[in-house]
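Task: encode each sequence below as C-alpha cells.

Item 1
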Amino acid sequence: MFDLDKWQEIFYTLKQNKLRTALTGFGVFWGIFMLMIMMGAGKGLENGVYANMGDFATNSMFIWTQPTSKPYKGFPRNRRFFFKYEDKQAMYDNIAGIDIIAPRIQGGGYQNATTVSRGLQEGAYEVSGIVPDENKIDPVDVVNGRFINKMDLENTRKVAIIGKTVYNELFGKDEDAVNKYIRVGEIYFQVIGTFESKHSGRWGENQNSTVLIPFSTCQVVYNYNNIVGYFSITARPEYDIMEVEKEVKTFLAKRHSIHPEDKGAFGSNNVGEEFKKMNGLFLGINMLVWFVGIGTLMAGIIGISNIMLIIIKERTQEIGIKRAIGASPANVISTVITESVFLTGIAGFIGMFIGVVIVELVSQAIGSTPSEDSAFLNPQVDFGVAVASLFILILSGVLAGIIPSRRAVSIKPIEAIRSEV
C-alpha cells in the first residue's frame, strides 16, 4: 500500500541535501544519457554504411583479369588475357556452389566515358553492357519503363536504360524518356527505362551516371567480339562465397592456362567477406557501447550506494528512535531501498528521455539535409532496449540500497540513540 509518511520522509531527506541529491542523480543521469547517445550514434553509423551498400547481394563476388605474374606453359610473364562469354556456362557446369553469373563489359574500356547526347544536350557517361541477372546482384529502382530483358540480349537490340543523373541532364523536367532516342557515340539507342541507384554517396552517384545497354549489343558496338570485362557471381545459400571464390579462380586459371600459384592474374572483390568484416566491426562497436555505458551507469549506482551509506550514518539516531518505538527492520529497509530506487529511477528516466530526444532530433536534421558522402544515417535507439536499460537501472537501484539498508537494520536501537553524528 502507498505509505504517505514514508514518501514525505524520503522527500524531506532529499530536500535537506539538494546539492548532494543533484550530484548523485547526475551520475546516474549521465550514465544512461551517454548510453542512449552512443547507441544512437552506433546505429547511425551502421545504417549509413549499409545504406551505401544498397540491396547488394551479400553472398556475391567480382572477378576480372590482370597481367600474369608468372610464366606458364610457354606463355610469358605479364601476358594479357581476357575472359570469354563461354566461361559463364563453363562455370555453371563445373562449380556447384554458383547461383548467378552476370558478365559485364564497359563501353570504351575501364573508367572511360562515352559521349551521350540528345539534341543539343550531351554529357560523358559510363556505358556498360549487362545481362538481366545483373539486377539480381546489384539491383536498382526502375523509376519508369523497364529493365533490360532476355529478348534484348538475344536480339542484340539497341536499347538503353539510363540513370537518374543522365535523365536529368538530357531530358526536361517531368519529361517521359521512355521510347525516346539518345545517341551513344555515333549510334542511336531507344530508351526503355530510367533507374535510380539504391546506393548512397559517390557509389550511388556513379551508378546514376550510367547508361546500361544489352551485353550482346555492347560487344558489337564496341567491337569486343566475345570478351567479358568481369563476372559478378553469387553463391547458393548453402555455400560459402569465399570457398566459391577459390573454386572459381582455380577453374578459370586452368581454363586460361594460368600458373596455379599466380596470385596476380585475377583481381577480385568478395562482397560476402566484406559484409562479414562489417558485421564483426559493428558487433564490436555495440559491445564497446554497452561496456562503456554500463560502466558509467555502475559508477553512478555505486555513487548512490555510497551516498545512502552516508545518509544512514547521518540518520543513525533517527533510525534508532524509529526502531525503539516499534518500527520493524522491514520498514527501515523498505524506506532506504525506496529512496534509492526513486532517485535512480527519476534520474535514469530523465537521462533516457533526453538522450532519446537528442538522437531523434539529430536523425530528423540529417534526414532533412542528407549528405551525398555521409556515412552516418538515421541514428536511432531501439525502444525495447531503452526500456530494458531503464528496468536494469531500477533493479540496480534496488541493489544499491541493499548495503545501506543492511547497515541500517544492523544498528541496535540503544546504540543508535546513544551515537553522535
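Item 2
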Amino acid sequence: MPEDSPKESKGTTACTDGKHPHWIDLGLPSGTQWRCCNEGASAPEAYGGYYQFGQVGSAPSLDQIAELVNYCTYTWTTQNAVNGGKFTGPNGSTIFLPAAGSRWDGELNGVGSWGSYGSSRPDGEYRACALYFEYGDAHWNDYWSRVSERLSVRPVR
C-alpha cells in the first residue's frame, strides 16, 4: 500500500494538507481513529457514496458512534460552503461530517439540512443503528428507517 494510504498511515490530530484521506486521532478512550473523508470522497466536505447498512466493512460500530457523541463536542457549522457537523475530541482534534442527508428510491433527501451516517451492521430487518445530526443536535439511535435506505459512511479503525 502507498505510504499515505489511510490503512497504513499513523493517525494525526489534523487534516493539514490536500492529500486525503487521513486518519484523525480525536483522543477517544478506545483509541478509535476516524477518517477525515466519507467513504467514496476525496475531501472532508464531499458527500461520497451512499451505502446500505453493513455494505462498508470499515463503518463504525454502535459503540464507536456512541463514543464519538459522548466524548466529543458537537457544533453545527459550514465548511467551504457545505453545512455539516464538527466533532471536537478530548485532545482538541476535529473531524467535519457533511450534512449529506440520505438516498431513498434513487432520490436524495435532507442534503444540507442533516446528516445520517450508517453503522457497521443492521439491527434487524427494518432498523439499524446510525449517527444522526442536524442544527443543534447530534445523537446515535436505532434508526427507524428501512435498512435499504442508503446513508453516508465515515470509516474508522
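Check on item 2: The chain is about 5% helix and 35% strand. Residues 55 and 71 are 27 Å apart (CA to CA).
End of task.
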